[in-house]
Write a structure and sequence with these properties.
The complex is a heterodimer of chains A (381) and B (174).
Chain A lengths: L8 H16 L4 H13 L1 H16 L11 H6 L9 E2 L6 H7 L10 H4 L2 H15 L6 E3 L2 E3 L7 E5 L4 E6 L5 E4 L4 E6 L4 E13 L8 E5 L2 E14 L4 E14 L11 E2 L5 E2 L5 E4 L2 E6 L4 E6 L2 H5 L5 E8 H11 L3 E4 L2 H4 L2 E7 L3 H9 L4 E5 L4 E6 L1
Chain B lengths: L3 H9 L4 H14 L5 H16 L3 H6 L1 H22 L25 H15 L3 H12 L4 H8 L3 H19 L2
Helix pairs in contact in B: 2-5, 3-5, 6-9, 7-9, 8-9
The chains are: A alpha+beta (381), B mainly alpha (174).
Chain lengths: 381, 174
């Protein structure tokens, strides 16, 4: 068997593709034409296809005593691979039980929504934890959140699950993986609290009944708009896709504009001092750091999760790994700070961490270790 | 002993062009002639011969031309080596000139070591790749049958096999 080193990963990949295509059966005449052209392009192509085909052929003799069970492998898959489930799935008892006792309501935002809301929000937490039968019914193919007596309803999505629901006023909420929202519609305002995770809001315009999203200390009020709110441990990001959003927060608006950011002086403000974000802008609000940073938002990247995609543009490997980990049981961990801060760009399927790993394996300086527990460790080579 | 169903499955994929010509190539590439230079020279020569095939002929069946040319080259070289006393092989070469199917090589030390190495590489792959590869190569299921069995798209089977092969290729040359 050849020990020839891979000189060009791209060619090795193409060769593997051709070897597998040949293995599948007769090529179409179109593919034959393509293969002929590809082969004539370079002796390297010929070499790599010969090696790939020979290697693939050699696999015939593998595990002749059948000591490896395919069934066992297949049954182990759910713990390794979680497909993105879209829409329709109801929060089940198990999820609610898992949530019960985990949620610790913290209500620092009460000053924003008025004291009257306190009781019903508190009720929302309790009812969600104790009786999670939020019957969602479907109208015209949309999920419709059922409104309860106390005016609230709630949803939590599981790992890899995404859900879309239409509220009574026609507003639509898309909820991303591992997220939790509580919805409470009152006479004079529509309130959605994002307890954790990420949601995208398409808001039906109604100036008499403002639509407010509460994420920790941050309140984002829609002004006939589509926007995304992503809440992580230490930060909430509000990104506006369409229309405008007024953001209020307990934090002082500290101007920390870096080079690629927008100075707060250049951002509109409402009469009562709220930041007015326009379409294509985003604000990162960090309660602990007490900072708000406004920058241009890549709308496509912000909304790509709805189609199961992750788009990165010069994102740190730490952030990329964290994003994949939001969707998959496979845990990607990075063992080195410098590696963690290395930046990459690319488009991936959120439920396919392997595509990222393969991408990284092309880099000479990254070592990939797989542990049986489903942890993939990245370290410098 | 293979069950009849197994035999049937295996028979069906023997028609493929890789299966048809790879054994000779395999003999060549896996024998002690397996230096990087040898493989490169062979590929270089195969490429040159390929460029001499009339284009209408070539695009009718590029894969058959490639593997026939390459396996002929491999045979020529193995025979040449066999006649050269400076390169007396220790085992296996007497079959090189035959229209071999690889069976004569089964059980040789080289091949057993090779299988062990491939199995090590296999065991390091993600479970889904492992499952698809085993179903295809060990159990002889067609791509479509694997798709059905795992409830995935045929194009996904292709993708996983491709990735598994690429991974294997990368690991092999480490």
């Amino acid at each position: 068997m050849p020990d020839a080193k891979i000189k060009n990963p791209q060619i090795a990949e193409e060769a593997a593709g051709w070897a597998v295509a040949l293995d599948a059966g007769e090529l179409s005449s179109d593919h034959k034409l393509k293969l002929a052209d590809w082969l004539l392009e370079s002796p390297r192509h010929v070499e790599e296809l010969l090696i790939a085909a020979t290697l693939f052929d050699a696999f015939d003799g593998v595990d002749a005593d059948k000591s490896r069970s395919v069934d066992a492998l297949i049954s182990s898959l759910p713990s390794e691979v979680v497909s993105i489930v879209r829409g329709g799935q109801q929060t089940d008892r198990k999820t609610a039980e898992a949530l019960n006792g985990v949620v610790t309501p913290r209500l620092p935002w009460l000053q924003w929504v008025g004291v009257g809301a306190a009781a019903s929000i508190a009720l929302a937490f309790i009812s969600f934890a104790v009786a999670p039968q939020f019957a969602a019914r479907s109208i015209d193919g949309f999920e419709v959140a059922d409104t309860r007596n106390d005016g609230s309803s709630g949803f939590a999505t599981k790992l890899g699950e995404q859900r879309k629901m239409t509220l009574e006023d026609g507003s639509i909420i898309h909820v991303n993986t591992q997220s939790e929202v509580v919805i409470r519609y009152e006479e004079h305002q529509r309130v959605v609290e994002l307890l954790r995770g990420e949601a995208l809001f398409e808001v039906a315009h109604n100036p008499d009944r403002p639509f407010r999203v509460i994420a920790g200390d941050t309140v984002a009020e829609a002004i006939g708009t589509t926007f995304n709110v992503y809440r992580t441990g230490d930060q909430t990001t509000v990104a506006v896709i369409d229309g405008k959003v007024a953001v209020m927060t307990e934090n002082d608006f500290v101007n920390t504009a870096a080079e690629d950011e927008i100075a707060l002086d250049d951002i509109g403000q409402t009469d009562d001092g709220r930041l007015l974000l326009a379409a294509g802008q985003k604000a990162d609000i960090a309660p602990d750091a007490k900072t708000v940073r406004v920058a241009a938002a890549n709308v496509k990247a912000v909304t790509s999760w709805r189609v199961g995609q992750l788009i990165f543009e010069g994102d740190s490997l730490a952030n990329i790994a964290a994003q994949f980990n939001r969707y998959n049981r496979t845990r990607i961990v990075i063992a080195d700070d410098r590696l963690a801060s290395t930046e990459f760009s690319g488009v991936f399927d959120a439920d396919d961490p392997e595509s990222l790993i393969e991408f990284l394996e092309l880099a000479d300086n990254i070592r990939v270790d797989r542990h049986s527990s489903g942890v993939i460790k990245l370290s410098p080579r | 002993m293979k069950r009849p169903e197994q035999a049937y499955r295996r028979d069906r994929r023997f028609g493929g062009v890789i299966k048809q010509y790879a054994p000779q190539l395999h003999h060549f590439l896996s024998s002690r002639l397996n230096s990087e230079t040898e493989a490169q020279d062979l590929a270089q020569e195969a490429y040159l011969r390929l460029t001499r095939v009339a284009r209408p002929e070539l695009i009718r069946s590029p894969e058959a031309y490639l593997f026939r040319i390459a396996s002929n080259l491999a045979n020529e070289r193995l025979l040449k080596r066999a006649q050269d006393p400076a390169f007396v092989p220790l085992d296996g070469l007497e079959q090189a000139g035959e229209d071999g199917d690889g069976a004569a090589f089964e059980g040789t030390l080289d091949q057993r070591a090779e299988i062990v190495r491939l199995e090590q590489i296999l065991d390091e792959m993600p479970p889904l790749y492992r499952a698809v590869l085993l179903l295809r190569k060990r159990d002889g299921y067609s791509h479509a049958e694997i798709a059905e069995k795992l409830n995935i798209a045929p194009s996904t089977v292709h993708t996983y096999l491709k990735r598994a092969l690429k991974k294997c290729r990368a690991r092999w040359s480490e």
